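Side project, low priority. Logging it here so it doesn't get lost.
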Amino acid sequence: MSTPAWSSIFKAYDVRGIVPDQLDAKVAWAVGVGFGRFVQARDAATKGIVAGRDMRESGPELARALMAGAASTGLSVTDIGLCSTDLLYFAAGHLDRPGAMLTASHNPARYNGIKLCLAGAAPVGEESGLSEIRAIAEEAYADAPDRPGEGLGVETRDLLSAFAEHVHGFVELDALAPLRIVADTANGMGGLVCPKVFAGLPFHLEVLFGELDGTFPNHPADPIQIENLAALQARVLETGADVGLAFDGDADRVFLVDEKAQPLSGSTTTAIVAKAMLDKHPGATILHNCICSHSVPEIVRENGGIPVRTRVGHSFIKGVMAETGAVFGGEHSGHYYFKDNFRADSGIIAAIVVLEVLSRSRASLSELRKPYERYADSGEINTEVADPKAVVAAVGELVASRGATVDYFDGLTADFGGWWFNLRPSNTEPLLRLNVEASDAPACAERVQETLGLVRELGGETAEA
């Protein structure tokens, strides 16, 4: 590989690229050096890091290279092996060590990436260290060995049982009912974590595509895309299950499907979990990102909580959680953050909290969800344009002239009173993401076409991604 295109693989809150064209063992080694030197500069008492990886075929080589890079700076390395991203964050908190996770989340098989955190699972993003790590990695790359990771000796630990026990601590186990659950783990890390977490609980669990396979032979591990829920929806109906769970590749995100096979948005799940957390922590602060439904802050206020709006992305949200003391935060994309989980996100913790709510309610999920769904939303619509930032600016100027209240807190949010949309460049992919919310489905569909029309008009050639 020629000199790496560092600017293309260092994103707003992680490293991600195509293997080996953009990300190979030498790059991973250099990032390990950058991470090692960065964490030691922040805290001279740092003695080691913890590392894990998902099931992608490139994972073992890249993980060993990254660990070798970190070890070359004098740090010890604890390898927890195959794990979900939320298990890695738990390890960083449980062991009080900085952590590195080799994963590209929901991206296709040809991608891999690196998510980093400090001891206690504190975030590392563009504004909290990733830029410094990149600068060190760029300099260190010239010294990368030809076979990074060869001969590396590390301590290995298995923390899966400890993580399962930790997840159980978020609910009252005696309150759980014998629900029938289907979990589609999409050949991702949920296939390892879900059976362990649900073992011994009164649920009947069936796992779809539980084999760990980083080629994703059944469907992409991206549950926010409705077409990737088809197998789960069919199985829920076939078995009469009470709920379906859909995890992404590194299993830190989850989406739910009710007994009628109808998906819940991330905003609906955020609202359900928010109320449950407020029941246990009256008056608490709850975070919601800028593309969550307006129903989320409404429900938080109605239940005595304090809603706080945030940018999209885990490093931003974890920072705001630390600043505000929030007990919970949710993203429309299916990430859910808990103060008692070292402020980190966990799909399976969110799932078990909803299962406790469902157990206590003795209602079906299709009934339980109704009070939390007050508006119609478009879901995320991705398009490609030549210059996403220029399109966002042009659309913002135009809709402001038409009477919308606009802000650029995270991309563009335009509120017309009866409906609103958010348009923002992706932090991880070359895409423009649109989310629209209106009073009902017909109005939402109309506003989607109207807004996409503006994007096409002002952005030139576009294509749905």
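Brief comment: The mean pLDDT is 94.
Revisit when time allows.
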